[in-house]
Amino acid sequence: MSSSNIRRIVIALSGGVDSAVAAALLQKRYGPHKVDLIGVHMQNWDEQDESGQCRKVRDQDARDAREACDILGIPFTTVSFVKDYWNDVFSTLLSDYERGFTPNPDILCNRYLKFGSFFNYAKRVWGADCIATGHYAQTDADDDVVEMGGRGRVRLLRALDATKDQTLFLSGIHQEALQATLFPLGDMYKSQVRRLANEFGMETLAKKRDSVGICFIGNRSFTDFISEYIPHRPGPFIDLIKGHVIGSHNGVHHYTIGQRCRIAGGKHPWFVAARDPASQTIYAVDDHDHPALFSSVFLAEEPHWICDVPTLREDEPFLCMFKFQHTEWTTPALLYKVSPSSSSSAPSSTVALKVWLSIPTRAVTPGQVAVFYKGNVCLGSAKILWVDVLSQIGLNPPFPMDQELLRPPPPQNPPYKSSQDYEYANHLKIPPQRQIL
């Protein structure tokens, strides 16, 4: 199907340079084919709950999104997903923080808002053939055959600009939405995007700084913000090695593993090694690279696979690459299926996956999302439930679990299905036993 069969594209405009340039590129490509391009700015947070500074930022973003549409001569509108954000994203964040997890709001927002509520809105209200965003990502489908459900199963690929690649944040996307999504910036570098913004007459946006963090927090600290929704629950900081109290805090939900602690009068830095929500205790170590901060094995929920569904077995590993933070490099990993009988986990936190990392990785944290790759393909993701180092220092998970699940697998000689698998497997060597306590 040629591009002339695409009649309407709805693009999500954040008010930043990326989505504005994405809209300009779409207009340049599809405009000659008389394709309707509509810009939509989403409001996801109730302005009554915003700080003054945050409201200014939100209002400016909306003005910048409108200005981009005015420059391009395309229709512009706004839509509110405040209720959807609260029900599908923010309530989940609060629940996870209270349980001692560290969630990733960007992954949730993309899954449920941009490629959930917004995707359905574009179809229902505008009759869109496809949507578009300013994300740095690619697919393996021909953009000229995009339509709602019309180009078969599609794989999510990493962006050309590795420093800006956003596939980690898109790892929860559903196949239906991916089939009908365009990523115009997937094969571009950020420097090119800013240069194009100037060429398209968007000089102000070309100079605009990238947004960082959760926008509706504004200039407030995360501690002050989350305290409006979760009450203070004081507890001690305990030296993991010596076992004595070294300070106090206002709740484990303010901290995550690997984070530097705020301990009054401390003579040297301390870092969070573990949190116990039941007793509101935070265990800390005095070394940024202490062995207690590094994990080799973790357990996760049932994975969400974007396109192809790997066959996972309990006795044979699936080889792939892993990461859980946007800025880190991928690590070779072995994935094993965990049967319900061996996990014995509670229904609300079902352990379905065991992941063994070839290189011990710092600050792997329950609640974060493990993202899996094969080469340039983002396969999918799974929520991390528990990590080996927490059991090694004496903590128990908030669900029944067979501790044998956390033992590293024996040395593997897996059947290599490809040269790529062989390359991964060469990295998969059991790390030496680490002394923690």
UniProtKB/TrEMBL annotation:
Catalysed reaction equations from the record: 5-taurinomethyluridine(34) in tRNA + S-sulfanyl-L-cysteinyl-[protein] + AH2 + ATP = 5-taurinomethyl-2-thiouridine(34) in tRNA + L-cysteinyl-[protein] + A + AMP + diphosphate + H(+)
GO molecular function: ATP binding; tRNA binding; tRNA-5-taurinomethyluridine 2-sulfurtransferase
Signal peptide annotation: none
Keyword Thylakoid: no
tRNA-specific 2-thiouridylase MnmA-like C-terminal domain: residues covered: 297-384
InterPro entries assigned: MnmA-like, MnmA-like_C, MnmA-like_central, MnmA-like_central_sf, Rossmann-like_a/b/a_fold
Keyword Cell inner membrane listed: no
Keyword annotations of the record: ATP-binding, Disulfide bond, Nucleotide-binding, RNA-binding, Transferase, tRNA processing, tRNA-binding
Annotated ranges, domain tRNA-specific 2-thiouridylase MnmA-like central: 224-284
Protein's name in the database: tRNA-5-taurinomethyluridine 2-sulfurtransferase
Protein species of origin: Folsomia candida
